[in-house]
Amino acid sequence: MYSGAAAAAGSPRRDFISVTLGPEEAVGVGGYNNSKAWRRRSCWRKWKQLSRLQRSVILFLFVFLAVCGVISYTSIGEAWKSITNKSLDDQRTEQEIPRLKLANPAVLPAPQKADANHGDYPELSLQKPPKPPHVRRGPSNLQIKAPRRDMRLKTQRDTMRAVEELVEVDKVEKTEKSIISWRGAVIEPDQSTEPPSSKITEPEKPSSVEAEDQKEPVPINERQLAVIEAFRHAWKGYKDFAWGHDELKPLSKSYSEWFGLGLTLIDALDTMWILGLKEEFEEARKWVANDLVFDKNVDVNLFESTIRILGGLLSTYHLSGDSLFLEKAKDIGNRLMPAFKTPSKIPYSDVNIGRGTAHPPRWTSDSTVAEVTSIQLEFRELSRLTGDEKFQNAVDEVMKHVHILSGKNDGLVPMFINTNSGQFTHLGVYTLGARADSYYEYLLKQWIQGGKKENELLEDYMRAIEGVKKHLLQRSEPKKLTFVGELAHGHFSAKMDHLVCFLPGTLALGAHNGLAADHMKLAETLIETCYQMYAQVETGLSPEIVHFNLHAQKGHKDVEIKPADRHNLLRPETVESLFYMYRFTGDKKYQDWGWEILQNFNRYTRVPTGGYTSINNVQNPSNPEPRDKMESFFLGETLKYMFLLFSDDIDLINLDKYIFNTEAHPLPVWVPA
Ligand code: DMJ
């Protein structure tokens, strides 16, 4: 309440506003009158009572405040607007981040189901296993490309939309790239691979159906068609008379069992894939899914079941991408592990895969050197795929042990090794044939498989080849063919197993991988010899063992055959080496030699009702004496190498990306060239 303050001060100046409250204006007297008309009247009266100066000052202040208000409104408004927008954006971002996170899994492939993908043939536009181009292992990564420069992203929302668009584009590009055709023409390992490390947690992906370097499929030629026809004929016999059993007996139209595990069917799986036999493959796949059971009280040979069954399942997994085969491989791999429980860690030859027990042959506690040193490619790969190091550790232990073992002769190994003492036995006999052959082959191939880093393997291989040159090479008469003989307690024998014919191919593979050029020269001379082992025989088919003539005798060829050795088991080693030689030299004569061999197989071993048979007498064209047995490696190896030999497509199992196990099952090179 302000009443007559200026008057009370006795000042004449009219600058002071003097307000006299009349009785009717007093609050609380006569009640509170707050009507609008009264208030308007009262304000106006007060305004009139002010001096002109007072009114001017008030008006000036009012105008000044109004101008200031208008100026500041714009900036305050902007600031306010940005504050409110920001908080709205924040709210949106929080809601939409989960959406972005959810977008990632959408571009990753659905997890493979063991039973779901058996129909996923390459021609059906397979979604290849995604791989980050520079990441060697681990789960697939979402590849989000950096936004293009010209793309101006204004808000968080725009950014996310742009990322989603790029992801879409990426997805479409990947799908387009992964359309590949049936058959192995574009089979490529999908990714660089590495040996298992102690920190493996993610299982490896198959190397199949990679289509990044996709090119036009190379058409199948006449000779390849002839191989397909031969395979179909062999398969017909197996299917009609031996389905699900180990081996076909084509003449008696029955079968024989060795392990009772469908050996021929498993050995032939990847051949069917490579030859493009889709229907046959599918049928065999069904048998594996429904009928292949390893929980059986049966003794199997560790080496044979590793190279044929474990190797066959692993390579089929890589080619087809079908996880069924990996599951089966893991199962058999685990069941074979008891073989390594020996005092020396040198595995026993036999394992009961149902009981989990292992033992040496009944008559000895020795194992064969080739057998214990030719299971490494498969077990190492199983470790890489499963992330479980126990498989690799077990087989690496064997190689390390053999590396430092005494009893070698310039790198050449004896044929037996004792599972108790870990020492070589039956010293003094050296061969590249039966019981030692694939020791040499696997030294080189493990070195390649592991990315050429394991020097001890290379050392042992190089030393051994020097040993071969020094002790085992001789030239025959009259054609002066270079051959690999045997050494027994210091005495040279001019005996050469057909099995030794793996050597030219292995030497050529080594030379291709940067080893001494004279290895290639030796390969060229040796493959000529292996071919002559066919060409100089009446049926044009090689016997199991030949003896070379060291001295020229009238009317004698280079090759002599003893009655006990004149059988032919449809073995692959020569066509295997022809395949390598053709791949690395491009010399068509190797294809022609292979073609002759196929024709002679057709002439002398083909059984009209289906299947092929081994024969007892390669020297008698009118009666080669069929043995009534088709070995599983005829489908697993011989026909596969024939098909590859006749192909001009170096990407049909590219030798810089795959390494063949000793049963012709291709496994990925961990660090491809
Ligand atoms: C196959 O089982 C393998 O190639 C093995 O290394 C040797 N024997 C046969 C083929 O001859």
State the CATH class of the domain at 224-260 and 362-664.
Mainly Alpha
Structural class: mainly alpha
Helix content: 40-55%
Strand content: 5-15%
Number of strands: 18
How far the N terminus sits from the C terminus, by CA atoms, comes to: 100 Å
**CATH architecture grouping of the domain at 224-260 and 362-664:** Alpha/alpha barrel
CATH topology of the domain at 224-260 and 362-664: Glycosyltransferase
Which spans have pLDDT < 50 for at least 5 consecutive residues? Answer: 1-38, 72-192, 197-201
Main location: endoplasmic reticulum
Biased composition (Polar residues): 190-200
Cofactor: Ca(2+)
Enzyme class: hydrolase
Topology:
Blueprint: H1 5-8, H2 36-49, H3 52-107, H4 156-177, H5 222-241, E1 247-249, E2 254-256, H6 263-275, H7 278-291, E3 299-301, H8 302-320, H9 323-336, E4 350-352, E5 357-359, E6 366-368, H10 369-372, H11 376-386, H12 390-404, E7 416-418, E8 424-425, E9 429-430, H13 437-449, H14 455-472, E10 473-475, E11 482-484, E12 486-488, E13 491-493, E14 495-497, H15 503-512, H16 517-535, E15 545-548, E16 559-560, H17 573-585, H18 588-604, H19 632-646, E17 658-660, E18 666-668
Bound molecules: 1-deoxymannojirimycin.
Transmembrane segments: 56-76
Binding site for Ca(2+): 662
Biased composition (Basic and acidic residues): 201-216
